[in-house]
Every structure is written in C-alpha cells, then in structure tokens.
Amino acid sequence: MAMDDQRIPGPPPSMFYMPNFVSEDEETKLLESIPANKWITLSKRRLQAIPARLTATNTLLATDSSLPPWLEDPIVQRIHATDAFDASPHGRINHCLINEYLAGQGIMPHEDGGAYHPVVATVSLGGSIVLDVTTKEENNTFLASGRQASKWRVLQEPRSLLITCGAAYSDTLHGIAEVTEDVDLGEGTVANWSLLGDQETVIAVGEKNVRTTRISLTFRDVKKVSNLGAKLFGKAKT
Ligand SMILES: O=C(O)CCC(=O)C(=O)O
Ligand SMILES: [Fe+2]
C-alpha cells in the first residue's frame, strides 16, 4: 500500500494520514475487544499497554512476538502492508498503547523518545480530535487565548490512520489540548484538511469539532525485547 498520496503537507514531510483505514464494523469490534479490566487511570486520561508496559529500562517483556488476534487481524496486518515498519528492528509491530480521552481531556506536548523505533502508527476510534504538532523550539509559545501556539494541527477522524516517522518523529512534539471543542477548523488551519474523509461535517457544524470520547491505538516496535518465556523456562537447546 503506497502512502505517498497520504503525505500531510506542512509538517516535516513524514506524517501520513489515511481516512477510513478501518470500517465501522471493525471499529465496533475493536472497541468491544479492548480489555475492560486493564486500564491504568491517570488524572487526564486512562491507558493500557498490550502486551505490557515497558520496564524501567525501556524493555518489553513478552512471551510472544505477535499481538493478540483482535489487534493482528485486521489492524496490524494492514499497517504492515504500508511498509512503515519494514526497516524496524523486528520488522513488525510488537507494542500497542491504548489511550482513552473523555471530552476535555488531552495529553501534554511530548516526544515518544528512544525506546521505540522512530515510527508510530495511530488508529483513532470514537470521536475526532486535533493533534497539535510543534517544533521543539516552538513548544513554549502560547497564544493570548492560553492555547499552545501550534505549528500544525492534524485532525484525526474516527477510523483514521496517522503514521509519524522520520523528522516528524524526531524533531517535533505532539500533544492534545484539554478542550471540549476544537475550533477554527478549516483549509488554512488544518494541515491534513485535503486528506480528510469528511470535510463536510466539520464545515456543517461551524468549522469545529465537539469532543466526545476518543480512543487511540498507537502501534510501535519497541527496540529492546526480553523473551520472558525463554527466561522462565530456560532457552530451548537446538
Ligand atoms: O492519543 C494519541 O493520538 C496520542 C498518544 C500519544 O501521544 C502517546 O501515547 O504517546
Ligand atoms: Fe506520543
């Protein structure tokens, strides 16, 4: 699957946006499959990691190199078909972080850092949300409204895929404002406007997005993996 046509104009040229990456049926099944009892609640959102959170040394302890079937098929397989992970250390995704944001919740500007191969694939489910992307120098600039000056705004629609790699991964910060509405959304303000699946709805409601619960699945290749099975039971002698 070629992603060249999905390149977002504006940010460092290594962010790609694809609307309708999963179908509505797939979205429903995915939302139903997220384990209900594994959430870790933070003050501004809740999250869970599959198969596990990284250790203090950024190591993934895993018994299996693949993710659970409900994530492998269709999502992981479909992301692999974009070639985005071809050059990663394991040549595949081995980790999924799930974040849930209620209306008004967000995440502080940050970078994902060195624990991962520098490619992240994000699938959005539920409501739409604006991801603010800034260069590292720009990060501490605030507008008179108190909102973070954002160099690029990426509108993530439900069922969309966003791939961030290259300079966009290494030279920018990303965050989500803690607002109940994303306002002033249009051709001049949304970096991926031309790639959206449904511009009409945004225009129809007054160039804004009223936040509802949004769940993101972020897929990565964790560089350091320790095979828990081999450690516990002894490496098979071959
Ligand atoms: O929810 C998102 O789209 C962003 C999540 C994020 O930045 C992260 O988990 O590192
Ligand atoms: Fe992040």
UniProtKB/TrEMBL annotation:
Protein's organism: Meristemomyces frigidus
Where does it live in the cell? Nucleus
The top of its lineage is:
Eukaryota, Fungi, Dikarya, Ascomycota, Pezizomycotina
A Pfam family cross-referenced in the UniProt record is 2OG-FeII_Oxy_2
Report the protein name in the record: Fe2OG dioxygenase domain-containing protein
Domain of life where this protein originates: Eukaryota
User: Where would I find the Fe2OG dioxygenase domain in this sequence?
Assistant: 92-223
Iron listed as a keyword: yes
**Family statement:** Belongs to the alkB family.
Q: Which SUPFAM superfamilies match?
A: Clavaminate synthase-like
Q: Keywords for this entry?
A: Dioxygenase, Iron, Metal-binding, Nucleus, Oxidoreductase
Q: One MF term in GO for this entry?
A: metal ion binding
Report one GO cellular component: nucleus
